[in-house]
Every structure is written in structure tokens, then in C-alpha cells.
Amino acid sequence: MTDLSGKRVLVTGGGSGAGANLAAGFAAAGAEVVICGRRMAPLDAIAATHANITALSCDVTDEASVDALFAKGGPFDIVIANAGQADSAVLSKTTLDQWNAMIAANLTGVFLTFRAGLRQFTGWGRLIAIASTAGVKGYAKVAPYAAAKHGVIGLIRSVALEVARGPVTVNAICPGFLDTEMTAQSIRVITEKTGRTEAEARKALESLNPQNRLFRPDEVTATALWLCGPGSDGVNGQAITISGGEV
Prior knowledge:
Elements: E1 8-12, H1 17-28, E2 32-37, H2 40-47, E3 53-57, H3 63-73, E4 78-81, H4 96-120, E5 125-130, H5 143-163, E6 168-175, H6 181-194, H7 198-206, H8 217-227, E7 239-242
Parallel strand pairs: 1-2, 1-4, 2-3, 4-5, 5-6, 6-7
Helix pairs in contact: 1-8, 3-4, 4-5, 6-7
């Protein structure tokens, strides 16, 4: 197992799903972990599970909030931009507010988090974005979300070249549909809009994976830990898919 004793880690959106699993995994590896989000109750619940986890409030779409987070909780050696939101509608019925919300949560939040992370690195560092297979292909009815995730891939590839001569790497992990609360919400939306049962909606999402299953959050955590461990120094600017062969 990767030993990250002495390292400090930030996980945005750490109160549920992949973020909560990332926090647990990095804490188990010996790191000091700070999780953040907009709602303190779920964050505090995760922090209570391990002595190495601390919870702080932050809205990653707000520049002042992100700067305050780093001032209070930093410095960090590893910055994981995991916070995000999902929404669903055909483009012709997508409002500008929906578009702006998806870009803010899924792209601007990564930009602000990564920029603050880079500014406080003094040596070795890791920037990791939790993106999506929607960042490397299209999915119907989620165009703003996919556009934002594609933007994340462009961001990490560009920043990777800026830092390539130093000890910092920048990568994205792009999972397919995860067995998390966000996917459960997607299943509820599918049932409401199509009349399918929850089992039918879940099966439809599972079928997008050649392995015919939803992915586990711990698969994302294992990949993130690998990116922070020995032998990962040359992995930079990559969009690593966890897709079962889909993309």
C-alpha cells in the first residue's frame, strides 16, 4: 500500500461518494486529509470516521472561498478536485442558468482549486481532477456537463506542460457511472422522465459499461493513490479512464 505519511491532502466535495472514499483511502495511507464542501453535516460525519480527516467549509465556485480554504487548511502536497454536480436535459431545453451552473461546478471549481494549489506548492506536488468519461466522449442530454468535463481535460493537459520540468504532476481520473449518490440521483431522474422502474434505469446505466456494472468509488481511490506513489512521476497530463473498455 502507498505510504503517504507526512503528506497533506485536500479533497473537495469530500462529504459523499467518491470524495468520501478518497478521504478514507488517503487517511488510511497515513496522510493528513482535509475535506471540504458547502454542507458541513455530511463533511463532519466523514471526518468523524478517522482521526486524520478534518472538515472545512468551501464553495469551490467562489474565488474568495477557495482562497480562504487554502489559507486556513493549507498548505497541501496533494490537491484532489473532486467537487462537481450533474444535471440532465436536451440542449434545446437547457437554460443558461443550467449551463452556467454546470460550468461553474465542474470546470471553474477545478480551475480555482488547481490555481490555489499551484500557488502554494514549494516542491513535490500532485494535482488530480476527478472528471468523467463524459470528458472524453459525449453523452446525450448532458451537454453542459460533458462540455465542462472536456474543459477539465484541456485544463490538465495544458497545466501539465507548464509544470513538466518540476516535481509536480497534473492528471485527471475519468470514471464511468459510479455507484454513488450522484448516480442514484441520475437514476431517479431517469425514472421520473421515462417511466422506467429504478431497476430498469440502473440496468440502462450499467449497460454503458462493457463489464455491465457500475464502478466502485474505491477504484477511483486506488488510481489516485497510485498517482501519488512511487513510479508515478512520469504520468503527467493524462486522462485516465475507469471505463471497463468503453472509451
